[in-house]
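Input record (Table S2, row 421):
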Amino acid sequence: MFLLGLNNPSRKAVSKLIVQKFGGTSLADLDCIEKVAERIRLRAQGGDRMVVVVSAMAGETDRLEALANRFCGEIPHREMDMLVATGEQVSASLLSMALKKKAVKSRAFLGHQIPIRTSEDLGEARIESIDPRELKEWIFSGGVAVVAGYQGVNARGEITTLGRGGSDLTAVALAGALDADLCEICTDVRGVYTADPRICSEARPIRKLCYDEMLELACLGAKVLQARSVQLAKRYQIPIYVRSSFEQHPGTTVTTEELGMEGTVVSAISCDRTEGKISIRNLSEDAEKTSSLFRALAEQDISVDVIVQDRSDSGKVNLTFTVPRLCFSKALETAQLCKEEDHSVEIKSHEKVTKVSAVGLGMRSHSGVAARIFGTLSREGIEVMAVSTSEIKICCVLDERYGELAVRALHEEFGLAKEPN
Ligand code: ASP
Ligand code: MG
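Output record (aspartic acid complex):
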């Protein structure tokens, strides 16, 4: 990505340039918008240069998507992006009005007005470049810039959107383009937690995480940051601070790996309830069969996640994989095709599984983490259906009934309620 940066060291000594992003729940109604405006006013008064990125008001993007879906059939991407981008247009204009009412010099910007240029892909566009000149001119004249998140413009002049949760990406990319001191993600929770606090009452906000840990958590169901925004922040080394919009508690810093971070074996336990599992037994040992199955899934845009394959003594292959629940029936139908050609093939499906994962940089240098996870789950009588691992993650696929129990038991096992020293 090509970003035009500002490298003026003298600026940093004078005041800070902050990109602050507010999520939809913080902008849910006019009272909330007014409260956000007040926070921005105080911050700007303190001398910080502010670029504020906003999401659509809570529930608005879902509402707009549902309106379009009422027409059923093939939804035109161009019009869909044009429609859903209006959510952010509304909140940016309202917030800028609220700021003006408080006598704060403010201006609202849409993606194409900056411009934030993106790839052609409507609905899931990539940011290609940002021209920060107009924004800079505005904030260095003492104004607050309020930017509609989640949107950009492609080479054909079409309004594009950046995928769900894409305002985080807008904020991180702007922080990069403006060479900001910090990118703050202001949300309805106090930061990134050691586990979902609705499941585990002992969960607490984590002080510091490295990008890779955050990326794993974001891909494993933590909603607090969009995964692509974390990738971008990692690539451009932009520190992110996740904090509560209205409360004054310390939040979570997401940053490059630092010495000592490996000391914590497990940083968090995540829980993802969006997938289903399909197992195919007795497949003949023919690599072409497996590859044509995955090809058929890919052609329908079904992304496959945890994949476990083993070969039995009889030379047959057993294959287990997970897919998003939204495409579960399509995936199952595709898997059934394997049976048509060979009647000894058996298919078992489990639509409601939960992926419970332990994530921590310390796993790289500590052994015995898997032993503790399996020991804990077996003590609780929880069967593990499939496992996938990375250098810093162990992910277990479980029956949905046991998901919450597993999260609490693992949180306890790794002593996460207590702040590490
Ligand atoms: N409004 C969009 C969504 O709901 C983008 C965002 O909030 O970040 O996904
Ligand atoms: Mg979000």
